[in-house]
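Researcher: We're teaching a course module on how sequence relates to structure. For the next exercise, students receive a sequence and then see the predicted structure as tokens, so they can try to spot secondary structure elements on their own. Here is the exercise chain.
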Amino acid sequence: MKRFYSFALIVLAALPMWGQTRKGVANVDTMPKVVRQYQDSLMSYKAKLDSLQNIDNQNNALFSRLFLPVTYYNDVSHNALSLNQNGVGNYNLNTALMNLYLTRPDLVAGTEDELKKIGATPAQIEAAKNTKVELVEKKAEKPVEPEPAPVEVVVKKPNFWTFKGDGYLQFLQNYVSGNWYKGGESNYSMLSSLTLEANYDNKSKWKWDNKLEMKLGFQTSRSDSVNRFKANEDLIRFTSKVGLQATKHWYYTLQLLAYTQFTRGLKSNDRRTYSDFMSPFNLNLGLGMDYKVEWLNKKLTGTVNISPLAVNYRYVDRRIFRKNDTEFQWFPSRHGLDDQKHSLTDFGSQFTIDLLWKIAENIKWKTRMYGFTSYKRVQYEWENTFTFQFNKYISSNIFVYPRFDDNTARDGHHGYWQFKEYVSIGFNYSF
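Model: And here is the predicted structure for the students to work with:
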């Protein structure tokens, strides 16, 4: 770069001589003189190349005037007229610029005063500081790796099981005085129920639903001099369904249904036992399809099971029941079994509809319809429970239960139909 500066100075210094040559007499051969001056300039500036390495930062900044538009600087004329030739600035640079001003004033584009209005002049710009950087080979420090802290890893398996349940304990009391003008009878009743569910769903293809229902209720009345307490509600029922998903709502299903009761079934002022634990015991197995109900914005939910292939097994454990203190009769015949037999097996078809409709925030309707036919006999049940929830723990139930079974003795008034209904109020709890 310094050599380039020297060459530029030589060219600027020679411009006046070239101009004089062109303005002089054309017949005079000035070429040898120019060559001689050029050679002398090369020798002169060659000797000064080393001194350029020691020019201070301010003189380095002054060399930028060679590459900027030609400007008239005040210090150039000041140094030319000064008696001290070692004034401010570079002597060679000032000489070249002074010759340019004198010989080619037409190339001067502006003055230093104009530059001051715009901004700092090159002489006032602080020269770039030469920072000596020593490159040394240095390896990056190896990062210190923290010691691994012991981490306890807990792997949890997905839980596809859900558990829920609900129960209630309700009472009913009715008092009628002995001289009540319409007559009547005082009585007390109690009803308890517990429902437990354990359901499996792997969110892929398989599901397994299990439900256990238990109900037990007692009543007492003054007119019954034989039985102090009688069961007015008695049920143990277990339902289990294994399903393989076919479509979004349909499943291929194998359903198991088993039910019996807790204690003896009695009637007022009658010593006979009409039913008992495992008498009867019903076991039903059906193969078909199950439909998952989600209607009315999921306010009506449940399942509908259709089993074209079903088998029903009925068993009666108790051989006889007491008719009076001295006479006995065969018990199984009351439940459709032949005398001297304890079991009955039927093949046929069945359906089960189990739904829950949340009619309002505090009103629910739970219904269950069950039907089985062996194409010789028909059994149909329809259980309806209307629940009115007053608060979290207090509720009232209305239970309506019609039933049809043509395998029993025909009644003169109701035929093969049977009917049961009650209203109760009490405590309710769900979990």
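Model: If you want an answer key for the exercise: The chain has seven helices and 16 strands. Confidence is low (pLDDT under 50) at residues 18-27, 52-57, 322-328.
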